[in-house]
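note to self: dont lose this again. the chain is below, predicted strucutre after it. 155 aa total, dont forget to put it in the shared folder this time
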Amino acid sequence: MHKLILIVAVAVFATACGRRAEKECDMQELMDCSTRYLNDSLGLAKAIPGKWKWEYQLSCFVISNDDPSDDQSYEGLIIEFRTEGSGEYTRKNNTGRFTWQLRRRDNRLFFEIDNATNVPFPPHDTLYGTIFLCEDKLMMSSRAEDGTDNIFKRS
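---
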């Protein structure tokens, strides 16, 4: 009887390990790395310009199928931030323009985005939330509002 319980326990444990999420919800390393910009909005504004390719989205509060990630919703989205506060985003041969600036709210830095053109995929869907920047990774985190995190990689 004890052997049967042990075999069942090992099988359950092995199955649970096999269903681990492909992308982890723990982004603490990225958040810790970005603390240098916590009180330096000018430094962050200088570091952001360039092209950023959307990689994936994490919905860590609503997990389905044991994988909180979504790497298809905004597949192919590239956002370019320019130093003078303008920007452009491209996805599937559609292009749109916007203006951006950083705003501080509740001791967190956010983008303030204004659409200059009306296109089917506004940039604020992926650019909403607290900004975390570490080297070639940019995360827009809406966790504080039980939302999603969108992760970009500098291209």
